[in-house]
Amino acid sequence: MKHILIIDDDAHIGDMLAEALTREGYRVSRAYSGTEALLLTERTSPDLVLLDLMLPGLSGEQVLPRLKGVPVIVVSAKVDVQDKVDLLLGGAADYVTKPFDMKGLLARIAVRLREGPGPAAARLTAGDLTLDTDARAAICGDRQVHLTRTECAILKLLMRNPTQVITKSAILDRISLDTPDCTESSLKMHVSNLRRKLRDLTGHDWIEAVWGIGFKLRVPEDGA
């Protein structure tokens, strides 16, 4: 049974999270301050931490660097893009803004637990297509094409969820931390440019548009 530590001094939000997580089959611990959280992590070794920033005593920003070897999802009312970027660079695995959708948060938790505590792989592979996220390049055999920051973020999301249709709103939400400049009006253009680059590289149309919903990865059945 996976163990999740909730660090939040808001009893109402903490109770709501604990109830939802318990219902999903997780074991839950609670901490109401930064100091208490650090003591609990030393004693209980949680598999994932949900961290609020506005805590009594040590703030969430002070606690985060000391939570080593465990994925941390920041759950905060702070909405500034720079705050999100700074926290991700500081070690957070994800950032969810309050008020949040519980189903969306549970999905993010499931993804982070599957990925484990280590950093995400720098290379993702589907069929004969490889994405090098460090170099922001799509690779097929000995050929490669450079991707923009937004194109790389979109392809990374699709390759991490190869069997799922990702809605447009989910794409915008999940890549917003990497590419805050991508908007609903520009998403179609970014996807179109990415599809063209991948088609020119491999001769295959890798991204399928699902009318009225979003997009999904289209891996060749023979892997070619």
Query: Can you tell me the overall shape?
Result: elongated
Question: Helix tally?
Answer: 8
Strand percentage, roughly?
Answer: 15-25%
Helix content: 40-55%
Q: Please list the strands of the largest sheet in the order they lie side by side.
A: 2-1-3-4-5
CATH architecture of the largest domain: 3-Layer(aba) Sandwich
Give the CA-CA distance, first to last residue: 39 Å
N-to-C series of helices and strands: EHEHEHEHEHEEEEHEHHEE
What name goes with the CATH superfamily of the largest domain?
A: Response regulator
How many domains make up the coordinates?
A: 2
Q: Major beta sheet, specifics?
A: 5 strands, parallel
β-strand number: 12
Radius of gyration: 19 Å
- Calculate the mean pLDDT score and round it: 86
CATH class category label of the largest domain: Alpha Beta
Low-confidence stretches: none
Structural class: alpha/beta
